[in-house]
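Recap from last week: sequence in, structure out.
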Amino acid sequence: MTAAAPTPGPSPTPTAPRIHDCIVVGAGHNGLVAACYLAQAGEDVLVVERDSIPGGAVSTIERFPGYRVDRGSSAHIMIRHTTILDDLELDRFGLRYLDCDPWAFAPADGDSPGIAFRTDLDATCRSIEAACGTRDAEAYRRFVEVWGPRSAAVMSMFTRQPTPGRFARAFWGMPTRDGRTGRAAGPELSQEFIRSGDALLDSWFESERLKAALAWFGAQSGPPMSEPGTASMVGIAALMHRIPPGRAVGGSGALTEALVARLRSDGGTLRCDAPVTALSRIGDHWEVRTDDGQVHRARSVVAACHVFTTLAALTAGGFDADTAARWQSRTDLGPGIGSAIRVATTELPRYPGLPDELPAHGVHSGLGLLVSDRGHMAQACGDSRAGELPRRPVVLAMSFSAIDPSLAPPEHHLITLWAQWHPRQLSGGRAWSDHTTEATDAILGEMDRHAPGFIESIAHVHAQTPDRLESELGLVGGNVMHLEMSMDQMFLWRPHPDLAGRRVPGAPALYLAGASTHPGGGVSGISGSLAAAQVLADRPGRSRRLLAGAATAVRSRVTGGSSAAGR
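Predicted structure tokens:
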């Protein structure tokens, strides 16, 4: 007997492709901050990252056996002047900061002792008096009084999407150096902000040593202090007496680790080893293609990678190539900034002539501003602009293993030497691979000049020249700030006037974040928080979350509520 054929059942319903609320492209700290705020607000968030390690330039790995070595940033300055750490409760996820105090120091010069910049202003002024004289010590105290509120206002502007009106309101009511306020103060205040850092320093101080140290601190944003508009970069030093730079225990990447843990606790997903190849707008959602052939879908996208990377992915997804090329051609990538040399040693550097009034760890918590005259910096910058290695590199030294023993094996230390200026493209078409040893030896030699015997203490060296910063971390052109931090590439003009609103014309529900956007490079997380706020503000039916309202909190935290900034 033949069995009856089975009756066909209903056809299975195809599973609809998952559409996330938001996909974040890039797991640098700004991308992760954006993702955390969105996940905290209940969004379904996916983060895709090209690298096998999240964090980008805010990551730490075991570069040498037993050493936790930063791949990018080391000192965290700006993020401690925002509410991001508290908003996301990152301390619950293991993040802990150590105050850098002293926060910086300048080397001894002949018979004059070094200068220690302490959080305590009185202690700093005593150090300046011993090294540079009474007049400069008194001038520095006044400089901090004048530029502290001004720099707090700059920080407040950083935490908000820039508009022309906010520029004027941020500084309204602030006095000039001689005490004038209101409309009469306007011309002088505006002049102070558009002048060069060098001109500002020359108007305040006599000692070249003090001026050189502060100029080198300001130059950490990239441009030399001879450029117009760099005065405020010097002025940020005044804020260090309120909240100093912080060192994340376990390395710079501890911030990333806490952000990833926070993201996952709120249901967010992170995929590494997933470079994005194309961004396409399909109907009412985005398709994000990765190089493994996968397609991820979302209602919105936050592109937290380099703006050139974003434009390339958009073009690959069908966006108008001519428009993207126009934006890119009018965006200043810059020539590259410098090189980072990571050094494992058997002892801490020994700097002669340090001040007596220091904590047990000496000056090793701070930024070593190893320069005594600005001519040294001008020459190095000029060499770099000509495509040459600097005849004598300018070095910033950091020895954070002195305050965080987890970074190195017992009785050993980890030193980072950051050297500006090194060009991404060497003249004559020369390859960096042929000059890495030469550049590294010059930097180590400059360090040994200030800390005799340093070279003999070296156990391991890893050089991150501009070409390696580009290939490892995706820093196009070797620029750790993504783009130049010159006046014409900040605020309303970063990365380009058409894109400064954090949106891409013709690409709805695509938002820009990362160092390519306002407020620029450095560890702040602000760009990520602003992008997240904009995503949520655009959600229909959702009340606007004041994720980027850090300006008010910054005002109360940094200035005690006395600043007129942000009114």
